[in-house]
Structures are given as C-alpha cells and as structure tokens.
Design goal:
Blueprint (H helix, E strand, L loop, with lengths): L1 H21 L5 H23 L9 H24 L2 H8 L4 H9 L6 H16 L13 H21 L6 H28 L9 H7 L1 H24 L2 H8 L2 H13 L5 H19 L1
Helix pairs in contact: 1-3, 1-10, 1-11, 1-12, 2-3, 2-8, 2-10, 3-4, 3-7, 3-8, 4-7, 4-12, 5-7, 5-11, 6-11, 6-13, 8-10, 10-11
Length: 287
C-alpha cells in the first residue's frame, strides 16, 4: 500500500509539473480537455480488451461524479500554476487531503497513534514546502489563492469519490474510463462556452503548437490516470487515511521538478518542508 501511494505522489507530481508548463503556452481548458481526451482513448481500448464493461454497476456513479468535478478542479489548478510559482501553488492545493481523510474518519476509520503523528508531520511538511513566500514582499496574488482553494476542494472530492468507484481491478479500468469521459464532456462544454464568449481555445497560430504538444499532453493525461489507479488500489489495500496522506506528497515532486527544470528558488523553509514530508512518510510506513 505504501509503495502504491508513493508511486501515486510521483505520478501526480510529474503530471502537475507537465500540466503547469503546458498552460504557459496553451489555455488551461485546452490542456485539460486535450490531455483527458487522449487518456480516455487509451482507457477505452483497455476497457474493450479486458471486458471491463461487465463490471458496470451502481458504484460507477462515484466515477461519474468524480469526472464531473475533476475538470473544474484541474482548470482552477492549472490557472493557479500559470499565475503563481509551482513550488507554492502545488503544496497549497495538497490541502485537498483533508476532504477524504475527514470522510474516512466519519466512516469509522481509526489510524494508530504513530500514523496520526505521521499524517500531522507530513501535512505540515507539504504546507511548509510551499507556504513561506505567502508572507513575503512578493506575496501570492489573491486570484491565485482563489484558484488554488477551488482546486483543493475539487481534488479532495475526487479523491473521496474515486476510492469508492470500484472493488475490482477491471472495475477500476471501467471507473477510470467513465471518469475520463465525464472529464472530457464537462471540460469540453466549458471550453465551448468560453469560445462562444470570445476566449480563443488556442493562441494565435496555436494549432501547430497543439500538435507539437500532443506527446506532452498524452503524458499528462496518462500519468494522471495511472496516479488515480494506484491511489484507488492503495486506498483499497490499506487505511484510506494513510493512502491519502502518502499520495498527497506530490507537491514535493512538483517543487523539486520546478527547481531542477525551471530553476525556481527553493527557500530553506521549503527544503525543511520536504524533509518533514519524508519524515512523515517514514512514520506512516512504520505505523
């Protein structure tokens, strides 16, 4: 379970980094719709090949709901990434873990004392990895914080819903496919409405840019799908509270990628936050 949850954080972190880079060249809605469409095509092939259609049932509605909410959360997140530093936005969006953790606790899940300590340390580390610049002279714009809060709430709802969407591996394929189809429908509708209101779906001369970005868009979409799959499996195998916290360490990956590729400055407090996140991971793994 620990390994699956950590793989989830790695995949989500890389997908967020890739999506954030793409939104600096393409409209956020276009990135969401294109990446999720490519992922839906691949998942559709997997569903047909595995006969996952036979797993359709009442739980599929959880995936439908997650698919309706997901694009709005991703849009908010990508807009926030385009407006503010990745190393700050991504950790703040990780407060989404409060939603599924709260649901699990309400449903009766009770982690041990060491796991509670690990969750607290990891959560503090994730926040610290992004929060120090909030009070600095070049503070984060209010619009960025609003988009980040919307993303956190939406991501938290998706985490809680997708964990309940299936009980088998083939059922998970179908649930992820249904989620992606709803992502495309919801995001596509929003893109159409925005275009009708005068917002171009592509920048000037952007069709060639979109074609050139297809490999990156496919990576973002498929990494997000794979992360959802490993998270759902981790939540099924072990306590959801632990799986959620470990999976939510992805901002550390995003921050490190931004540091390595974009040379975004990592403050001492942010580095300490990454260390706390690692310490929290160790406590959760041993608890």
């Amino acid at each position: 379970m620990v390994t699956l949850a950590l793989v989830t954080s790695l995949l989500w972190g890389l997908a967020d980094f890739g999506g954030g880079l793409l939104t600096r060249r393409l409209p956020a809605l276009t990135v969401v719709v294109a990446s999720q469409t490519l992922a839906a095509v691949v998942l559709g092939g997997i569903v047909v090949a595995t006969g996952a259609w036979s797993e359709a049932g009442g739980r599929l509605w959880f995936a439908v709901a997650a698919g309706a909410i997901g694009p709005l959360a991703m849009l908010c997140f990508y807009r926030a990434l385009a407006l503010g530093p990745m190393g700050v936005v991504s950790p703040l969006a990780a407060t989404a873990l409060a939603v599924p953790v709260g649901v699990a606790l309400i449903l009766g899940e009770r982690p041990g004392l060491v796991q509670y300590a690990g969750m607290a340390v990891a959560f503090l580390g994730v926040l610290l990895a992004g929060g120090p610049t909030l009070g600095g002279g070049g503070g984060i714009p209010r619009q960025t914080l609003v988009f980040t809060a919307g993303a956190a709430l939406g991501f938290g709802a998706v985490l809680a819903l997708i964990a309940e969407a299936s009980t088998t591996v083939t059922g998970l394929f179908l649930a992820l496919f249904a989620q992606r189809v709803c992502n495309v429908v919801t995001g596509g509708t929003a893109l159409w409405v925005a275009a009708r209101r005068g917002a171009p779906p592509l920048p000037e001369g952007g069709r060639r840019l979109l074609v050139g970005a297809l490999p990156s868009l496919a990576f973002v979409g498929l990494a997000d799908v794979a992360a959802n799959a490993t998270y759902a499996l981790a939540a099924r195998i072990g306590p959801m509270t632990v799986a959620v916290v470990l999976a939510s360490l992805y901002p550390v990956v995003t921050a490190l990628a931004a540091r390595g590729v974009l040379r975004e400055r990592l403050l001492a407090a942010q580095a300490a936050g990454a260390g706390l996140a690692l310490a929290g991971t160790l406590l959760l793994a041993t608890g």
